[in-house]
Amino acid sequence: MLKRLSPGDGGLFSPPQPAKLALCMRIPSYRLCFVGLTLAVTGCSADGDPDNQGGNSGHGGMAGMAAGGGEAGSSAGGAAGNPGGSGGSGGSGGTTPTGGTGGTGGTSVPKVPFGVDKRVANPTCIAPARPTNAANDPFPKTIADTGCFDAVDVHKPRPALIPFEVAAPLWSDAAGKRRWMAVPDGKTITIEADGDFTFPIGTVLIKEFELDGVLLETRFLIRHTDGDWAGYTYRWDDAGNVATLLGDVVDYRFVNDLEWQFPSRKNCLACHSTSAGRSLGPEIGQLNSEMAYPGTGRANQLATLDHIGMFKISPGDPKTLAAYPSPTSLAGTVAQRARAYLHSNCSHCHRPGGAMETAIDLRYLTPLAETKACNIVPSKGQFGLPDSRIIVPGNLSDSILRFRMSSTTQNVRMPAIGTALVDKLGLEAIDAWITDLKTCP
Ligand code: HEC
Ligand code: HEC
Description:
By secondary structure, this protein is an alpha+beta fold. 12% of the residues lie in helices and 17% in strands. A hairpin with a 2-residue loop joins strand 2 and strand 3. The longest helix has 13 residues. Bound molecules: heme C (2 copies).
């Protein structure tokens, strides 16, 4: 049977957490939640107000929570504004997790100022030249040849690889993921006005996938010397010992009763689009969260990257910066969680210039009024629902966005590619938001 792991829980890398029990009740302006043994007081003044997607939400300890530790509260701030526009309050607005587990399934990971102490030289994990397909093509054929993993243990990243996690992950049929960045020595990351990271030429970004303890593939997004990016994936053998480069074709593998699809190189770039800046996860709102760094402890990712000099210009104190909540947590508001989900799972295709023949813009920072979704007649079919709109406040069955997300039918389902199963927890986050919406701004 297919086991539903919550995003971020990887059977192999971080044993599934026991289900969290949350009991919540509303008193006039707060929501009181008892989660496990921890008490969280959640300001909910911003919840339920469709025009108010945000204001300040405290995201302190969000990662600790995502990792199954304590429960974070959000601040009671409810000032109108773009979601995340004014950032979090660094945990001061709520109860801070005391027992963040950092995905290690029960062991408490200590909090440290920085997850990495200093930048480690990176002599080997550097973008290779594009593959030529010639007989003597030097493009690495197996993961052992890439220079990014340990020469003896190919599962172990080299010290120069910096691990990272995203607050709102992409749903990939409950697969667990590990992510790293490898930036060439002496080069730095530029932060764009919208918070998106632009990596220097030569950068290698890596994401490893496993499902129910089975290693599936390790994807490489590489910025070549011509300045553009390309995607490649290495498929692990059944024993999980050797990962071999796949050609530019879609490949398949069964894990229990799920048919896993290895995307083609074209598929990579359909999502890793130019309009989305090719790299997708690394941006301020996604990395302004804590992660449990192997061997050190829990630390804010932006502070860590800044500390070791990875940024061309420091973004400043993370507490002053946008922080997307984890969609499956209780951090932030209902609207912020839903918008973070849509941002991560949909906006790489649905954004201006996304070339998807639809006008909707599902980026987190786009005000709801400008998403071209709320009370807008769908341009790509109403599926027999005459009163349907892309989003209808308070009405799930007439909301086509929700309808498509809950479908598994080819050409209806959303996201269009990359998943076979409906993301039940993701859908819950969207449903809670649409149900809560009163009107379109
Ligand atoms: C269905 C859309 C989709 C497809 C297809 C896809 N990706 Fe991604 N990928 C994403 C999203 C969204 C993220 C960021 C969120 C996350 O990591 O959970 C991401 C993250 C990554 C990362 C981590 C760095 C980053 O940009 O966030 C790498 C590396 C990566 N993908 C490589 C690939 C490669 C290589 C392929 C093709 C073999 C591929 N991806 C296909 C959507 C996609
Ligand atoms: C890989 C690119 C891709 C991703 C990722 C993606 N979509 Fe789409 N989306 C499309 C395409 C292509 C269409 C047009 C489909 C058609 O013609 O029926 C579309 C159409 C839609 C429509 C219909 C719009 C209209 O005007 O009728 C909605 C709503 C939608 N997507 C929602 C989502 C949501 C929600 C997500 C994330 C959970 C998502 N999409 C992720 C490519 C994508």
